[in-house]
Amino acid sequence: MGNYLITIPFFFYDITKNRDIVNFKRIKDTIINNIPAIGIKYEVLVKLKKYPDKFFKSFGKVYFSKQHKINPDWYKNYKEDKNYEILSIGKGIQILDIFQTALWKQIIKVEKIEEKPVDIEDVKIKINDKTVLKEI
Predict the structure, then answer these.
(1) What is the pLDDT of residues 101-128, one digit of tens each?
(2) Backbone region of residue 33 per phi and psi (left: phi > 0; alpha: psi in -120 to 50; beta: other values)
(3) Which candidate, 43, 41, 96, 28, places its Cα nearest to that of 68?
(4) Global confidence as pTM
(5) What are phi and psi of 81, to 5 degrees?
(6) Which of 30, 35, 84, 97 is 20 to 30 A away from residue 42, measured at CA?
């Protein structure tokens, strides 16, 4: 067995721009894992850099904790998919996201919230001059 170096690129969106068409509306609040939550339903027509003349439809629902608040102003430059506008309504950490396209369904759900201090080094993505970055 040999050692192999595999380079996996970071794929990213420029979050300061909104190139997609996003519609969203507030839906009925609910409780998820004993956490009261604000619900938002959304539909996105995604435009990829590789296919500038086409849109790809995705849709879903997202729920934000009413107990675990965020400051929406931290996200004021986060314009991609109208996230700043959505976070201004949700005002909490995301506890459930159900996202669908024609090809797949993705569910991200918080199972447990543990409040504790976090060192910035624990969440920092390490990028250097050998890191491959690809905008999608």
Answers:
(1) 888 899 999 998 888 888 888 877 777 7
(2) left
(3) 96
(4) 0.72
(5) 55, 30
(6) 35
